[in-house]
Amino acid sequence: MKTDRDLERQLASIDRRGYPAYKSLRGTYDFGDFELDIAHVQGDPFAAPSQLAVYVPGDVSGLPACCRDAAHRRTATEDLLVRRFSKEAAQASFKVGGSGKSGFIGTSNPGPEILARSACEIAPDGAVMLRFEAGLPAHGRTIDARAAARMLLDLIPVCVERALMLDDAGRRAAQKAAELADDQRAVRSAMRERGLVAFVADGSVLPRSSGVSAKPLAGARPFTSPESMRVTLELPHRGRVRGMGIRRGITLIVGGGYHGKSTLLKALQEGVYDHIAGDGRELVATDETAIKLRAEDGRVVHAVDISPFINNLPDGRDTRSFSTEDASGSTSQAASTVEALEAGARTLLIDEDTSATNFMVRDALMEAVVAAEHEPITPFVERVRALWERHGVSCVLVMGSSGAFFPVADSVIQMDAYEANDITERVRAVLADARLAGTHPEAPGLGVSAGTYPEASGLGVSAGKASEAPTPSTSSSSVQDALVSRPLELGGKLERRSTGRLGRRGRARGGDGAGTARHEHLKVRGRGRDGFSVGSYDADLRLVEQLADAEQSAALAQMVRVVLEHGLLDGMRALRDVVDEAFRVLDEQGWEALSPYGDAACGLARPRPCELFAALNRLR
Questions:
Q1: Beta bridge partners of 234
Q2: pTM recorded for the entire structure
Q3: Residue 160: pLDDT over 80
Q4: Nearest 5°: phi and psi at 87?
C-alpha cells in the first residue's frame, strides 16, 4: 500500500498541470494511524466534490465495546462520529482557496434525528470507516498542489484525529449516546407491551424555535402528562421516567388555535425516529409504522382501490382501480390512506388543517340538503372505527373545528396553552346530554337525531378498550379488499436495464451466479428533501412529511433507480414484494448496493419502508 509520503510526491509531480491529472491520486494511502482512500476525483473544480474516506482501526479509534456491540448502539455511535467529523470539517473547510469548490471539506450534517447513514460505518472490532467530500484545489482549472498537500496531509488528518480518535471525553460522549439509544429502545419495547402508539416523557420540549428550525424553543413550557394518561417506564440508564401514554385506538387532540395541537402531533409524527440528547424530544416515541396523512392536490395516483371512501363518481371512473395524474384533495387523501395501510401502517396521524374537509366529515345539515345518492364520498369519520375494530389500525387526529369525531373516539386530549388535559370523561358527558336532548352537538336546535352519529364502540356508546388490540377481521369488507398489495406498473416508459436478481455495485447478477455485467444506469437528479427524478420519471415528495432528511430522499432515489433498472415494476409483482426486495438488498449488501459505480459515498440516509412505498406511488 502507498503511504502519505507517496501521496506527497505524487502531488508534487502534478503541480500546475491540468485538473484531470488529479485522477492519478486515486487509491489508498497509509497515514500510520489511519488510511485515506481517494475513491472518486471530480472532473473539474466546479463539479461535485471528490469522494474520499478514512479508515481508523479499532485499536486507534478507542471506541468502547458497549458502543458497538448492538445494532442500535452502533447507529447512535456512528451518528455521533459523523457529527464530530462534520464539526471539525466545517472549521477546516476552505482554509485553502482556489476556484470553484477548492478547499471544501464536508460530510453529512445531521439534524436532530438519529439515522443510519452511508457517511459512517463501525465494524464489530471498533474500526471506523468515515466517508466525506473534498474539493481538490485549483486556480482556474490548473492544479494547486501546495494547497492540495496542505488539505490532504495536514487539515484532513487533524479532522480525523480530533473526531475519530477518541480521548476520555470522546469515549464518555460515545457511551452516553449508546446509553440513550438503550433507553429509547426500551421505551419502544414498553410501548408495544403496554398497547401504546406513543409516549411523551414529562419534561420534553415540543415547540421548535421557528417554522424553519429544528432547535427547541428557548423558554418553552416543558410537557407535563395528564394524571389519567400518565405511565411510568423503567429505563436501563435513566431509571424511572414518567410521561403520557397514548393508547391504541382512536385519540383526538383538540383545543383552541395556537394552543399546541399541531405541535404535539408534529412531535408524534417525528417520534418515529430517535432524537439526539438536547433536542427536547429524545424521549418522545411513536409507533415506527405510523404514517402522517394529508391532502395532496395534484398528486399522481396509480391504480389504487379508493372505493372504501369514494364510489359512484359522476364520470363513471372505476374507484376500485383509481388512477389520475391530478388528484383532488379528497381523492389524494383517500389514496394515501389506502397506500398507508398497504404499506403496513398500524397508526395513522391526521391534522384537520392539512386534510380535505369533504374527505374527513359530512355534517347533518349537508346530508339533509344533498341526498346520499348524490355524494360519492364516504367520509373518514364513518370508517375510522372499522379500521381500529376490524383491522387494528389506530388513529391520532387533531381536530379544531368539528366535533364529528367525538362519538367514535376512545380518548380526547385538550391542549390548553401547551398543557395537555385528558377531557375524555367530559366529552362522554356532553355526548350523553346531547343524546338525551335529541340534538346534534355540532348544530344545537336543528333537532337532528343523535342516531345520525357513526357510532360504534367509541365515546358515543361506551369507553371501549383502547389498550387492547382487536383481532383483525378475517371476513370480507370494503376496507379489507382495498388492503391487498397491488402490483405497480408505470406503463410504456419503463425500460428494463438488466436481468436477474439485484446484485452489488449496480451490476446485474446472472441467475446461475456466473459472472457480472455492467450496464448503463438511469440518471438520478436530486432536489433535496423535495424529491428526485430517475431517468424520465419524477417523484414529488414535498408533502411526504415524515421524510426527515434530504439524504433519505437521496437514498430513495437510488433505491428507485435499482428497482427501475431491474424491471421490478412490471405489473406482476406486488408492491410489498418490490419494497421488501429493495430493503433486503440494502440490508445484505450495505450502502454499496445503492452505488451505481462501485464504492459507496456519503450523502445517503436510511428511509423507512413506507417512504419507499410513498416514492414509488408518486412516480410519474
A1: 240
A2: 0.90
A3: yes
A4: -65, -45
